[in-house]
Amino acid sequence: MQDYLFFALKRLVQLAAVVFAGVSAAFVVAHYSPISPVETIIGRVAGQSTFSPTAIESLRQTLNELFGLNAPLHEQFINFWVRFLQGDLGPSLIAFPTPAMTLVMLALPWTVGLLTVQIIVAWLIGNILGGLAGYYQNNRFLKAFGVMAIGIQPIPYYIVAFLMVIIFGFLWPVLPISGGFAMNVRPSFTPEFILSVLRHAILPITSLILVGIGTWFLGMRALVSNIVTEDYVTYAELAGVDRDKIVYSYVMRNAMVPQLTALAMALGGIFSGTIITEQVFSYPGLGTLLIRAVNGGDSTLVLAVSSVAVIAVASAIFIIDLIHPLLDPRVKVG
Predict the structure, then answer these.
(1) Rounded distance between C-alpha atoms, residue 201 and residue 193, angstroms
(2) Secondary structure of residue 225 in the 3-state scheme
(3) Residue 264 CA: distances (Å) to CA of 32, 177, 240, 281
(4) 308-325 burial by CB neighbour count: b if 16+ within 10 A, else e?
(5) Where residue 3 falls among pLDDT bands split at 50, 70, 90?
(6) Which residue range forms the structural domain that includes residue 264?
(7) Pick from 246, 31, 62, 18: which is nearest to 136 by CA?
């Protein structure tokens, strides 16, 4: 138990280092971005009224002082981390004066919901069917499913999302193709609102799951196809051990460990796919918020979304790292 606690502490230190590096990189990118919050505000103000060059320059200097852009870069970096640890990165420009972190916290549950359902359903179904396909290699249904998986897996998330929009939004319009809930439904914990949220989530989640299942199915099938040739599996079959026990206890259990590692490595790509899918369906998550921030030149909001995304993905990988030794006793925790 002491070794595991020491292992968890090391992983926690690594998590802190990854978050610091990732958020710092987001700060540097936002700082050197060609999109300037000061010039964005000046452009909006100048477009609404007529100002003299002197007044515009005075406004520019005031805004630079307000955003702390007159300070040296290292001071801006320190001030950013102080505000970040306090949970306040400043107001959003596209929703001024609402704090950027408030908008992120409102959008985060929608993205987390999509990611959670997609990962659980796609990972479990893909691995179970892939494991069965690797063991029962002559099963016709599993062979047909494998052909479908090979065809769907290389397709990007957003292409599948566009196909879902065309099919269920125009050719067979039975499901909503935009938004997180119906416009005539008030957000509250009522059956009407919950059902509306579920209906609007069907297409985004389905498009993510279709690609995800194919990926995990093919990976698991390849692993199990190699494991079934191992001596301990052959001996168990010759000894008359029940087939179900061989499949689930001997074969799939051993193959799940590398698949769990693959899940940790794939989380970044899954998150990116979710971001793009949300934009296709105008889903009110971090993806849609990020695109709005980029189009509106809101660097504060872009930095807030990026920072939260780094923390979320790094934390998910950290949790998987903690689970890994519990499933595989070969992993050293000392």
Answers:
(1) 12
(2) helix
(3) 30, 30, 36, 26
(4) bbbebbbebbbeebeebb
(5) confident
(6) 102-285
(7) 246
User: For the chain, how many structural domains are there in total?
Assistant: 1
Q: How far apart are CA 326 and CA 100, in angstroms?
A: 39
**In Å, how far are 118, 176, 179, 218 from 196, measured between CA atoms?**
19, 9, 10, 34
Q: What's the CA dihedral at 61, 62, 65, 69 to 10 degrees? A: -50
| Inside any domain, residue 92 | no
Among 156, 154, 149, residue whose Cα is nearest residue 129: 149
| Encoded tokens for 116 | 């959670």
For range 227-241, the mean pLDDT = 79
* Tokens 């609402």 sit on residue: 98
Tell me if 44 is assigned to some domain.
no
8 A C-beta contact, residue 287 and residue 301: no
Contacts 24+ apart (CB under 8 A), 302-305: 302/30, 302/33, 302/35, 303/26, 303/27, 303/30, 303/89, 303/100, 304/89, 304/92, 304/100, 304/101, 304/103, 304/104, 305/104, 305/107
CATH of residue 235's domain is 1.10.3720.10
In-domain check, residue 91: no
- Checking if the pLDDT of 264 tops 80, the result is no
> pTM of the entire structure?
0.78
Mean pLDDT (the chain, rounded) = 79
Q: 333 lies in a domain?
A: no
